[in-house]
Design a protein that fits this description.
Elements lengths: L9 E2 L2 E2 L2 H31 L4 H29 L1 H16 L8 H29 L4 H30 L2 H21 L25 H13 L1 H17 L6 H20 L6 H23 L5 H34 L5 H30 L1 H27 L1 H4 L7
């Protein structure tokens, strides 16, 4: 693996590192299938299977919880059994479970299938993050993650186009085709991961060493929770913006789609560039503050769209979303640098799995909090959300310094980057 973080990551858009090429191709195939499924899932199960929207929501929530709790044990399994092998199995398993959606007709079955799919998929994501952290050394890990996130955005957009075709056809066979494509792309991706370099499993635990050491690493737990608070900005854009546009502005609801496309394109083009500098924990913590400041400013601009008229609201929404996405990219790189830099080399899987739990908790808490603050309270609520995100990022500086000072106790060997 290339150890020089300043070396060219790509040549004509193609990764120079062969391992990153495999990961990127697998990500493109897998996420394209995911994008098609996300676009059609709710409408298929309400229109064709005739479940109530609330029932579909319950199935999605239970599935998300299953994925949330699967990440740490899956990451640990990748550490002790080998990350490549575990990643391959979990990715294939997620595809096999997705095939179950083709014959699912009742709520209990949908809940079960979604729990299995998400447990495998979230677990695979945790193992993949641990794999990247171990194989991309010398500050390359953040750049690898940034490139893969850019690929994810492109793939999800392509998949959404495919899902849009199925919605336009609006026939059962079209929806079922999308479900089948998503399942097959996951299985193909799992098989592709066989081409990744093998990493030896970690040595057996020492006498008295806990199975899931990350749960006893209090500094890392605190840092992860603070990162989760910062990550609530993702949910603001996914949940808060659509509701805000429809209930508090004169902007057309089509602005929701326009802002989504804007975000996707900008991340695909600039995520790698704006992740530069997050090479170690200290610089990554500083990046979190810088990025959170951009996010807070973006929220303030968006809050001003209430009462500005149609054209004014449209202009301010575009400006606010553009400012926000800069902060999104900077904080993403910072979070990756912190979580990978603080984790012991031999426990990257379980540590990255726990880092994912922070984002999962944000997904659980943020929708209700955002609705109460930004939508019910209105403009002042946006200021509170901006303060929460920025405040958590500021606290990450001393929290990260504390965590760095305890790395010898918890066995991390990569904290200084």
């Amino acid at each position: 693996m290339a150890s020089d973080a300043k070396a060219a990551l790509t040549r004509r858009g193609i990764p120079v590192d062969p391992t990153l090429r495999v990961l990127a191709l697998g990500t493109m195939v897998n996420r394209a299938g995911n994008g098609a499924l996300v676009t059609t899932f709710a409408l298929y199960f309400t229109r064709e299977v005739h479940l109530h929207a609330a029932q579909v929501g319950v199935a999605l929530s239970v599935g998300a919880l299953a994925g949330l709790f699967a990440q740490i044990p899956a990451g640990h399994l990748g550490d002790v059994r080998g990350p490549r092998e575990t990643l391959r199995v979990l990715t294939i398993l997620s595809g096999a479970c997705t095939l179950g959606l083709l014959v699912t007709r009742q709520l209990w079955a949908l809940i079960l299938v979604m729990a299995l799919i998400n447990a495998a998929e979230y677990g695979a994501n945790a193992v993949r993050s641990g794999y990247v952290a171990r194989i991309a050394v010398g500050g390359q890990g953040v750049r690898f993650k940034a490139y893969l996130r850019a690929v994810t955005n492109v793939a999800m957009s392509l998949g959404a186009l495919l899902g849009g075709i199925a919605l336009w056809i609006n026939q059962p066979w079209a929806y079922l085709t999308v479900l089948g494509i998503d399942a097959v792309t996951s299985i193909i991706t799992g098989l592709m991961f066989s081409r990744l370099p093998h990493i030896a499993p970690t040595p057996p635990r020492g006498v008295g060493e806990p199975r899931l050491a990350v749960l006893r690493d209090i500094p890392f737990v605190v840092v992860t929770l603070l990162c989760g608070i910062v990550a609530m900005h993702f949910i603001v854009m996914e949940v808060g913006i659509p509701l805000w546009i429809s209930q508090h502005t004169d902007a057309p609801t089509s602005m929701v789609a326009i802002l989504l496309v804007l975000n996707t394109v900008v991340v695909a083009l600039f995520q790698v560039r704006l992740s530069l500098g997050a090479d170690d924990v200290t610089h990554s913590a500083n990046a979190m503050v810088s990025g959170a400041l951009w996010i807070a400013i973006g929220f303030v601009v968006i809050s001003l769209t209430d009462g500005t008229g149609r054209l004014g609201a449209v202009a301010l929404l575009i400006v606010g979303a553009s400012i926000h996405v800069v902060g999104e990219m900077i904080t993403s790189g910072g979070q990756w640098g912190i979580s990978m830099g603080l984790a012991p080399e031999e426990r990257q899987g379980q540590y990255q799995g726990f880092a994912g739990v922070g984002f999962g908790l944000a997904n659980v808490v943020a929708p209700t909090l955002i609705t109460l603050l930004c939508i019910t309270w209105g403009r002042p609520g946006w200021y509170v959300m901006a303060g929460l995100v920025l405040g958590a990022a500021v606290l990450l500086r001393p929290a990260s310094a504390w965590a760095l000072a305890t790395r010898e106790k918890y066995g991390a060997a990569t904290a200084s980057g």
